[in-house]
Each structure stands twice: as C-alpha cells, then as structure tokens.
Amino acid sequence: MIKKIMLLVILILPQLATAVDIYINKVKLNDNEISALQNSYGEVQEGRYWYDSFAGLWGYENGPTQGKAIANVYFRGKLPANISGRGTSIFINGREIHYKEKQYLESIYGAGNVKTGRYWVNHLGEGGYEGGVAFFKITQLSKKMRLSPFSTRDLVGGNVVGKGYIGSKGDSATW
C-alpha cells in the first residue's frame, strides 16, 4: 500500500507543481508556451493577462497597462478590443484603453487633448491614426522602464499589489 501511495506521489506531484493557469489575450497557455515564457522572464505568476505585441505593452484583464515587455512576441489569440474594459472610446492597436490610461495620457498632454479615436502605437512610443503615419510620440514608452512583464512596477512608477494599485508618490491607492 505504501509503495502505491509513493508511486502516485511521484507521478502526480510534478504535475501539480507545474500546473499553472496563465491566460494571455483570453487564451490559456500550454506547458510549452509557459516554459518559453518562464525562460524569457523567470517565474510567471498565474493570472489572466493581455499583451499588445505591436507596442509590447501588457496588463491584467480588465485593467490598464502595467508595463512594457519585449515587442513582437506572438501568442495564440488576438488582442480583444474590450480586454481592458470599456468606456473611453480610445483604441490603441485595437484595444480600448482603460480609464486610468486615459488619465495618464491626459497628465502628459493635458485634459481635453486626448481625443477619442483609433490609433496605433509601436514599441518606440510612436503613433498615429490607424492606417496613417506617425504624428505623436509617447516618450515614456520609448524608454525601457522594465523588461519583465511580471514585475510589480508600472510605467508611472506605481506598485501593483495583488489587484490593487499604489501611486508612485504613495498618495493614491485603489483596489
């Protein structure tokens, strides 16, 4: 009986240790994809993420951009338009941006200067209207502020704590 239990533990324990559910753009990654991701970034937390391969931006489903990763890495599944939520009517690379991203852009360009519409933005932060030429640059996106998409720092210096957010100056917190 003990030998049977030990055999079960030997066969099942490794599967339990590697059984991680990671979703990118609403598609569950398989073991090979998780291994490749972990080889590039180290340990990857279980969770549901979105990833914009053109800009290299990433975040949690229903949330704003959390950071910048390597651009042009392709995963199965297309970036859904509503993966960050709805309501801003500002689309970047097909994804409607979160209201916190709109607030962040307004802090750079001024309230009222961030117009609704459909835009593209590349990994250098250069962008324009979908199908058009570049006419703006978000300089903060051209900097390599963090390579790993699974650290706890965001583009504006705040900390992500679980599903919460603490502002870079410690003056705001949301959950």
Write the layout of secondary structure elements.
Blueprint: H1 2-18, E1 22-24, E2 27-28, H2 31-41, E3 47-52, E4 57-60, E5 65-68, E6 90-92, E7 95-96, H3 99-109, E8 117-121, E9 126-129, E10 136-137, H4 139-142, E11 159-161, E12 164-166, E13 173-174
Parallel strand pairs: 1-3, 6-8
Antiparallel strand pairs: 1-2, 3-4, 4-5, 6-7, 8-9, 9-10, 11-12, 12-13
Describe the protein.
With 175 residues, this protein is of the alpha+beta class. It has one domain (2-174). It contains four helices and 13 strands. It has helices at residues 2-18, 31-41, 99-109, 139-142; strands at 22-24, 27-28, 47-52, 57-60, 65-68, 90-92, 95-96, 117-121, 126-129, 136-137, 159-161, 164-166, 173-174. Strands 2-1-3-4-5 form a five-stranded mixed β-sheet, with no helix packed on it. Strands 7-6-8-9-10 form a five-stranded mixed β-sheet. A three-stranded antiparallel β-sheet has the order 11-12-13, with no helix packed on it. The longest helix has 17 residues, at 2-18. It starts with a helix and ends with a strand. The relative contact order is 0.13. Residues 4-17 and 143-175 have low confidence and may be disordered.
The largest β sheet comes out as:
5 strands, mixed
- In one word, what is the shape? elongated
Distance between the termini: 49 Å
| Radius of gyration (Å) | 19 Å
Please state the average pLDDT score: 77
Reading the helices and strands in chain order gives HEEHEEEEEHEEEHEEE
Strand order of the largest sheet: 2-1-3-4-5
Beta-strand percentage? 15-25%
Got a strand count?
A: 13
Q: Give the proportion of residues in helices.
A: 10-25%
Pick out the low-confidence regions: 4-17, 143-175
Number of helices: 4
Summed up, the domain count is 1
Looking at the chains present, what oligomeric state does this protein adopt?
single chain
